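Encode chain A's predicted structure.
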Amino acid sequence: MSPRVELLLTVAVAAIAAAGVVVGITLQTRTTPHQPQAQKSPPPVPVNLPKPWGPPIEQAFRNWPKGSIDTMQRLGLQYPKNAQVQLYRGIALLWAGYPSDAQSALERAKKLGRDTIIQVQADNLLHPAFFQPTAGPSYPIFQPTRPNPLLQRGSQLQAQGHQISAERVYQQAARKDPNDDEAQVAAAVGLFDEDNLTPAFSHLGPLTQRFPRSQSVRYYLGYLLAWTGQRDASLKQFKAVVALGPKTDLGTAAGEFVARISSSAAPAAGG
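Encoded structure for chain A:
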């Protein structure tokens, strides 16, 4: 199996395996009446954060919980427009059992960290019921199957956490060749935002009619559905990918996905 196929398969399977699973540190208490308890274990200690705010953040996490929240709240007031400070303030509040306050801090971090990896980190934390990448924060990343410098550049930008810049490049590719299915798919994937799934899906869904024989359209529709925990709908799309050609890179990845998920005991979407 090629590295590209293995990556596509691994992410898709992991995404659907995580569907509906809410991590222990969760913001889903937005809709529950009780206040969650602080985590028993200390949070991971960040390292190599830039000065001047980095060292006190690292020390606050290293000394957890002695004075940690007070330190992070003070830093939050001292650096109200610093995305990294707000991110770690949100993490500290989340770990200490204050989900509402954590939500506000993380939303601020996401806004301040627009087009950086902090945007993605904050969004992943704000939506724990969606797929949580174990290799680091990420959104679904488009990977072209044909040589295309713009799409390859956009994919690299996504991998670096520059989602907005990637979307600009994808849109450029889509305008340059409106009949290129992969360029249109990439432009839809670039719109992915866990706070608002509508733009990505509303752009990607109609492409199934515009490009009925495109494996890329079906694969990435299934990919985004898997990422957001919609198991049955994603399986339907991956089966369609296989039907369009089981021996291509995308067909191979989709076929393996269908085989693994169909034989597993993964719960249905929303279960």
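Residues 37 and 112 are 28 Å apart (CA to CA).
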